[in-house]
Amino acid sequence: MKAHLRDESHTAALGVSLARALQPGLSIHLHGDLGAGKTALTRALLHAAGHAGHVKSPTYTLSEPYRVSLGGEDVNIIHYDLYRMGSPEEFLDAGFREDFDGHNICIVEWPEKAAGVLPAPDLRVILSVAGTGRDVELQAFSALGTSCLQRLHFPPIL
Ligand SMILES: Nc1ncnc2c1ncn2[C@@H]1O[C@H](COP(=O)(O)OP(=O)(O)O)[C@@H](O)[C@H]1O
Ligand SMILES: [Mg+2]
User: What biological process terms from GO does the record include (predicted)?
Assistant: First the structure.
């Protein structure tokens, strides 16, 4: 799936679409330079998934968990920003790999920083600056990722 996101409202709309297509156990890697919109997308996704509070960029904590209800089932959505991670070993030392347990939904900014130790994604989202907006491409890498893309309706009916 490819789309052009003309402004931030389109990025937010994609977050809504993704939130509606989530399933427990899904792991999403977000690719793109600083300022591409990875955090903006995640913030919109979390709010659309029912998180009412603030969503901060987990720049220093590296990970931030949120508890949401998905079709009546409680699920953790864990948001990672690995930008400041010094080495892939840090990922293991922090116990992050145990988060990928087939039930938690894991959303990872800067997956490149944990190359070799990060579990493979179900879904990859690639954001890039295009003019004053952003281009986005979504790629599925598993049956879970494929079914997420099949259920994804973008733009969402708001
Ligand atoms: N589709 C878009 N077009 C233009 N600007 C956007 C779009 N989506 C997000 N932005 C802006 O780009 C910036 C993205 O920042 P952020 O989400 O923190 O990026 P990242 O997490 O990838 O470093 C924000 O200032 C946001 O307002
Ligand atoms: Mg970010």
Answer: tRNA threonylcarbamoyladenosine modification
Question: For a substitution probing ligand 1, which of 8, 10, 154 has the most ligand atoms within 8 Å of its CB?
Answer: 8
Asked if residue 158 belongs to a domain, the reply is: no
CA distances from 92 to 101, 113, 126, 146 (A): 14, 12, 25, 28
Would residue 29 count as lying in a domain? yes
Q: How many domains does the chain have?
A: 1
- Residue that has been written with the tokens 């989530």 in this structure: 22
The type of residue at 9 is: S
pLDDT in tens, 138-154: 999 999 999 999 999 99
The residues facing 76 across adjacent strands are 67
What are 97-109's pLDDT values in tens digits?
Answer: 999 999 999 999 9
Closest ligand 1 atom to residue 133 Cα is: 3
User: Among all ligands shown, which has an atom nearest to the Cα of 36?
Assistant: 1
pTM confidence score: 0.97
- 122 assigned to some structural domain: yes
Residue stretches of the chain with pLDDT short of 70: none
Which residues lie with the beta carbon below 6 Å from any ligand 1 atom? Answer: 5, 7-8, 10-11, 32, 34-40, 109, 132-134
Which residues, chain by chain, have CB under 5 Å from ion ligand 2? 38-39, 57, 109
What's the token pair of residue 17?
A: 């679409």
CATH number of the domain bearing residue 66: 3.40.50.300
